[in-house]
Give the backbone structure.
Amino acid sequence: MNAPHMPVRPIQALSDQLISQIAAGEVVDRPSAVVKELLENALDAGSTHITVRLEEGGVKRIAITDNGRGIPPDQMPLALARHATSKIASLDDLEHVGTLGFRGEALASIASVALLTLTSRTADAPHAWEISGGKEGQVIPASGALGTTIDVRDLYFNTPARRKFLKSEQTEFGHCAEVVRRIALSRPDVAFSLTHNGKTVDHWNASEIDKRSSHILGGEFAGARLPLDETAGPLRLHGFIGLPTAAKARADGQYFYVNGRFVRDKLLTHAVRAAYQDVLHGDRYPSYVLGLDLDPALVDVNVHPSKIEVRFRDSRAVHQFVFHAVSRALAQTSATASGAAPAPVTAVPGVLPWVREQQQTSFAAQFSSAGGVRQTLADYGSLFSPAATAEAGEAASMPLPGPRPVAPTPQEGAQEDEFPLGFALAQLHGIYVLAQNSKGLVLVDMHAAHERILYEQLKNALDENAMQVQPLLIPVTFYADPVEVGTAEESQAILQSLGFDISALSPTTLAVRAIPALLKNADAQTLARDVLRDVREFGGSRVLVERRNELLGTLACHTAVRANRALTIPEMNALLRQMEATERADQCNHGRPTWVQLALADLDKLFLRGQ
């Protein structure tokens, strides 16, 4: 295509008005950008109460009033001039900037594309002063309280082409309201009010971050979040992260702040996402409100005109710190977040203490004769003693007594939350474990719960290079296609690090001589085929670096106790105890919940008790 004909003009300096309008294209792309710039200025002025008034989505009017320090009348024309600011005076100030606004071009840019009136009063002034238009405007006496009001009317009145790109009134208001919410979250110590077309939309009194985040993100987030506050050297990460079970289909509940400034940073987003990697179900997004505090010299906030992107001096260190801090917070479970988890039941490493099928009747007899679930600590412990096991074997052939009413007694001498998941009552349809705790009824998906337990044990063993191997007395042989045989021969080092000994007996036969001890009860042939498939698919050494969790998840899923497996009361209790001692036990590694709590109040509602 031919280039358009361009008139030949001499090089000349642009006018201040045109320069400001060009800058406005970067800084003031829509009404919400005006709201952001003015709110940041209000906070930098030390305001404790800010009111935002909008008309027609902010296109007709944006008026923001604060109770900050105010601007002296002799400085008001400079406030509307380009590159004039009180926040930096040298390169050193720029490298250690601690304010939200500092470029000194926002007000000038806004005044170039809208009708702007600035009214301000300082503490020592007998009255307020006012200036309209740009820096050439006249400063005149006015009425007004301590602080500043900036009234922006008819945005883009002199650039109609740009106005055509704006969306509907409701859409533009939605963007403005989101900016107010973001900034209100960053400063819970400041009261904010938002009105639109004369109607109050939001009002938040000064409070703490837990209350402010509850008001803005809603009660669902408030009831499903974990607190986080970690420090490492010059870095501090604090705030709240949502439980994986409360993840959403959209990423509209994610707020990250760097030194109080809301940012959209790919590095930070990736770090949080990676921490949630194996606890989210499907393509879901967690909600969170997180603040990262660090020395301003370690972060560059001057990489974008809107200051919504940042650059860290040591990005890798920041990524690792955020990732590990969020991972540690998620390692808690909602059952044990308020206290330490009890020690896991002694068992064969990585495997729940499954009792022989023929012993089930003996435990059932013991359960019935006790008149219900053994809930005292002494009785519970006795179920796992050698004497109890021997007694159970002798009782296996005894006839069962008739059913008796189940009347569990309170725990004697135990702290109410010492066993947060309570004690097993029964198994439902071979899938769910029913348990009673101090709050009410607990429902456990036994396959999902056991899958998470095995998955965490496999990860820990691999991390610590402590993957124990279980040699097979008789090797398991099976027919294999040439691809499987080739993968086994080429990936011996990877397979051995995972605890497998798989070798070729012939061009069409593989032999499994050892498997991980944690998976010793699984089908060796199925495990071998799964690991060979994943090693081939993920690309050899990449398994242990990038895709190891997918592989370990596959192994855990195939090895976990299956649905319709009848469990005894001791087996169910052992599962509950290991869940309490396992990190991230609230979800399986696919992100599905492993257990839910039904409070007594919930059960009372079902039966209309007290109504």
